[in-house]
Every structure is written in structure tokens, then in C-alpha cells.
């Protein structure tokens, strides 16, 4: 059934600029969230509300723009131009790193974070203010289309649902949390007012969705502990996925085939691949150390095995992320200095936003290393097996949301156990060919069956089950 939806996210599906001739240009937005939400545009009547990021975005903010997705599906786009200082506080102080680090359990608590006067100002004048701007935009959209359901996304917008609910008590509101939800004690890092407002904001929705039962249970526990309420009835587990057919087609595109030829030109006999953002949650440094332990234990594999690490630089305006990128580069150099020989460098590290090369690497892995400290889902673990041509084995962190679905066919690792990860690389590289193939095919079959459309259908069906009197 085609529905009217108001999709609300910090980043939008397109951003605008100016070409050399002065004409307006449109660049399709990146990131897993925008990619995942494309199916909503394809099957539903969508108005998408997002932040104005570029100067040209700000020039068209407040207008209702007619846009089309890559497949030609039409949708409406409304960009919100926030106060620049407020947006900086909202994004670079509160959302990232504070909320991201809380929800991925990344803070080194004896030393950080500092919840000082600057944070309190960033919360009240940044995060609260920007959420209020989003809520006002949603309210205006509901004025035009009162029968639309509102679909909020992620940790940037925890307060907006309550603000909308206060203006429109009967609105249909859904919020999907794309990252992990920690147990309540970790939320006590935040001041009481902030953590209470976050939980209360989410409880204003009719439905709150999570990738796994694990994150959903933690949310129910947190709401009970911090608000004294029961969130069970308004929560749902809906694992996000990918468009399998799109990836199979993409794997044969000119850009991917060109990148694949580059990989094949220097490919060792066995290839360990990791594709990540340079985010501390991705656990890249420990992954390099695990590969070092493997090389140390298996000198017979020197020159025969290599690791290709394709890393997209992430949030470099935030000190914690810039520092982690430096740590990644230092660790790769240290391992290479220890083991490299003429014509062989064990870790090939590339820092670039190059999706075509990532897909090419997906096709070529013998081992895919996904060792995240915590991850809401991790779509790399679903994408790569779809196109792999070498019966590759997935080494998967037990703290990645994808493990709840794929763990049966992956090699499970504890993200903090470096030796355990080295042992898993060894097992993967020496595994019987029939076992490798069976595991890969099982992952493919699961991802094809549990596709992106099932994710959206699950969430919208959950909304349909909620009776209007239950709305708050």
C-alpha cells in the first residue's frame, strides 16, 4: 500500500552546489542511512526533511523541492537552515562525539568525557535548538499533509518527537535508532536532564525500532530505570538490510570492474579485506594488531597474504576522530615496518571515499574482517558476501548487530580479544573449500530473503498495529 510519509533525518538524500557555469548541481547523498531509505521513496509518497549542509542547500532552504531518486521515483525535499553555531554544537559536540560515544561504549571514563559548561551550552543552545527547528518543519509538513506518518531517524533527533507530539497529539510517529542502545548505567554519563529528555523524546513515538533484540531490550530496560515507564509495547525489532539486486548489478559496473583490475594487479594469493569508516567504534587498530599476530605465528604465509584496508575518513572536524585516524596510520606503518619485504607490504592502507573500489574488494576477499567494538548493524557484513567470487569467510564481531542474523555462518570474535581475531583469520584462511562455500551461500540466501523492503514493511506494519488512543 502506497503511503504518505514524512522522512526526517539529519543528512538528506541530495545536496546542492554550483557548477562552473553557475547552474545549480545536485549530488546524491552518501552513507548507509540515505541508501537504506531509498526504498521508501520508491514505494511511498515521501516528503523528506533534512538539514541544509552546503551554501546552496541554505539558499533553497524552506522551499519544497521536487526531486527524483536514482531509479526515477519522485519525492519532495525540504531543507532546514539551522543557525550555524547551533548546528556546530548540535553535531560536533553533542551528537558526535557525545551521543555516538555513549551509545557505542567508547568513552575512556577515568579521563573523558568532560560534561562542563561548554557541553551544557551545546546541549541547550545546539541540540535542543536544532531539534526544535526540525520539529517546526515537521509540524508545517503535517499542516499540509495531516494524514502522513512521520519517520524519524537516528541519534540526531531524539528530542523532536516529543516536540511534535505536544503540537499534534494524534500524529503517527515512528523513530528508528540505527546505532546500539547501551544499558542504563552508561546513560548516566549524561546529566539527568539530558538523559531523561532523550528517553522521553523517544517515548513520544508510537513505534521505536531497533536492529536487534539486544538493543531493543536495552532500551526497554533504560526507560524503566530512567523514566519509570514500560516501553515494551511501543518497540519493535527490524534489522535493516540492503538491496541485493542492486549490489549484484553494481558489481559489474564499469567503475567497479576498473577498480577490481587495480586490485588484481597487486593481489597476493590470499587477501584479508576490511571496509570501514575511520571511526573509533570500528576497531581498526586492534584489527591491524590481530593481523600482526597472525603474521608472527605464520612466517610461511609472508608474501602470500595481505590485508587491504579501504577506509573512508570520518568526521575529521572532531578531535577524537582525527586522533584515531592518526593512530590507524601509525599502526599500519608499524606493522609494515616490522614485516615488509621487497615487493610485499602486508597492510595496504587506503584512506579515501571510494565506494567502487570497496565493492571491488568485496568481490575479492578471502577473509572479510568486521571486528567492530559495537555496531548497530554493519551493512558491510551483508553487502560483501552478495558479490564475493572467492567463497570468502566473514570474521564477525559478536557486538555487531549483523551478528544476530549472520553469526551462525560467520566466525565469531570478541572485538577486544586480539589473539582471538588472529586465530579466526587463521581458521578462515585454512578452512575447507566446501565449508567456505556453504557459509557464504547461507549468508547470501539470508540477505536476499531479509531485504530492505522487509525492513520498511516491518516498521510500517508495527505502526499500523498501534491504536490512536495509545498515542501520547
Mean of all residue-level pLDDT scores: 95
The level-1 CATH class of the largest domain: Alpha Beta
CATH H level, superfamily name of the largest domain = Glycogen Phosphorylase B
Which structural category do the helix and sheet elements fall into? Answer: alpha/beta
Textual characterization of the structure:
- The chain has helices spanning 32-36, 38-43, 55-60, 84-103, 117-144, 160-167, 184-187, 192-203, 213-227, 244-250, 254-265, 284-297, 319-339, 355-364, 380-387, 403-406, 418-430, 433-449, 452-465, and strands at 4-8, 14-18, 24-28, 45-51, 65-68, 74-80, 149-153, 172-176, 207-210, 235-237, 270-277, 305-312, 347-351, 367-370, 393-397, 411-413.
- 47% of the residues lie in helices and 18% in strands.
- It has 19 helices and 16 strands.
- Mean pLDDT is 95; it is low at 468-472.
- It has two domains: 1-241 and 451-472, Rossmann fold (3-Layer(aba) Sandwich); 244-449, Rossmann fold.
- The strands form three sheets. An eight-stranded mixed beta sheet has the order 5-6-4-1-7-8-9-10, sandwiched between helices. A six-stranded parallel beta sheet has the order 13-12-11-14-15-16, with helices on both faces. The chain has a two-stranded antiparallel sheet with strand order 2-3.
- It is of the alpha/beta class and 472 residues long.
Amino acid at each position: 500500500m502506497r503511503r504518505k510519509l514524512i522522512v526526517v533525518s539529519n543528512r538528506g538524500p541530495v545536496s546542492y552546489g554550483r557548477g562552473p557555469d553557475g547552474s545549480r548541481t545536485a549530488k546524491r547523498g552518501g552513507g548507509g542511512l540515505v541508501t537504506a531509505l531509498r526504498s521508501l521513496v520508491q514505494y511511498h509518497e515521501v516528503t523528506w526533511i533534512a538539514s541544509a549542509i552546503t551554501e546552496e542547500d541554505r539558499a533553497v532552504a524552506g522551499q519544497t523541492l521536487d526531486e527524483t531518486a536514482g531509479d526515477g521515483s519522485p519525492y519532495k525535499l525540504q531543507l532546514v537552515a539551522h543557525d550555524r553555531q547551533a548546528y556546530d554544537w548540535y553535531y560536533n559536540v553533542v551528537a558526535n562525539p557525545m551521543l555516538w560515544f555513549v551509545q557505542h561504549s567508547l568513552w575512556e571514563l577515568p579521563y573523558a568525557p568532560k560534561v562542563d559548561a561548554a557541553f551544557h551550552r551545546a546541549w541547550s543552545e545546539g541540540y535542543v535548538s536544532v531539534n526544535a527547528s526540525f520539529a517546526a518543519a515537521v509540524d508545517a509538513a503535517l499542516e499540509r499533509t495531516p494524514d502522513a506518518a512521520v519517520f524519524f531517524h537516528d541519534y540526531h533527533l531524539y528530542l523532536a518527537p516529543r516536540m511534535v507530539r505536544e503540537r499534534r497529539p494524534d500524529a503517527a510517529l515512528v523513530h528508528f535508532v540505527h546505532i546500539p542502545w547501551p544499558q542504563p548505567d552508561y546513560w548516566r554519563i549524561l546529566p539527568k536532564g539530558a538523559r531523561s529528555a532523550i528517553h522521553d523524546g523517544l517515548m513520544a513515538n508510537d513505534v521505536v525500532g531497533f536492529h536487534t533484540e539486544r538493543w531493543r531490550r536495552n532500551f526497554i530496560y533504560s526507560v524503566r530505570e530512567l523514566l519509570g515507564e514500560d516501553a515494551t509495547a511501543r518497540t519493535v525489532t527490524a534489522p535493516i538490510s540492503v538491496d541485493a539486486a542492486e549490489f549484484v548489478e553494481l558489481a559489474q559496473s564499469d567503475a567497479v570492474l576498473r577498480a577490481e583490475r587495480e586490485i588484481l594487479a597487486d593481489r597476493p594469493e590470499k587477501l584479508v579485506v576490511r571496509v570501514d569508516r575511520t571511526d573509533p567504534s570500528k576497531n581498526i587498530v586492534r584489527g591491524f594488531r590481530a593481523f600482526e599476530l597472525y603474521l608472527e605465528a605464520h612466517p610461511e604465509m609472508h608474501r602470500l597474504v595481505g590485508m587491504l584496508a579501504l577506509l573512508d575518513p570520518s568526521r575529521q572536524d572532531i578531535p577524537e576522530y582525527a586522533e584515531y585516524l592518526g593512530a590507524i596510520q601509525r599502526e599500519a606503518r608499524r606493522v609494515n615496518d616490522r614485516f615488509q619485504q621487497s615487493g610485499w607490504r602486508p597492510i595496504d592502507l587506503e584512506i579515501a571515499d571510494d565506494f567502487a573500489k570497496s565493492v571491488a574488494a568485496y568481490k575479492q576477499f578471502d577473509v572479510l574482517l568486521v571486528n567492530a567494538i559495537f555496531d548497530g548493524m554493519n551493512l558491510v557484513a551483508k553487502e560483501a558476501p552478495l558479490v564475493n567470487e572467492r567463497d570468502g569467510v566473514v570474521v564477525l564481531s559478536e557486538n555487531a548487530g549483523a551478528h544476530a542474523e549472520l553469526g551462525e555462518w560467520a566466525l565469531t570474535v570478541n572485538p577486544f580479544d586480539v589473539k582471538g581475531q588472529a586465530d579466526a583469520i587463521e581458521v578462515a584462511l585454512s578452512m575447507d573449500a566446501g565449508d567456505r562455500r556453504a557459509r557464504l551461500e547461507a549468508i547470501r540466501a539470508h540477505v536476499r530473503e531479509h531485504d530492505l523492503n522487509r525492513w520498511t514493511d516491518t516498521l510500517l506494519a508495527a505502526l499500523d498495529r498501534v491504536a490512536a488512543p495509545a498515542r501520547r
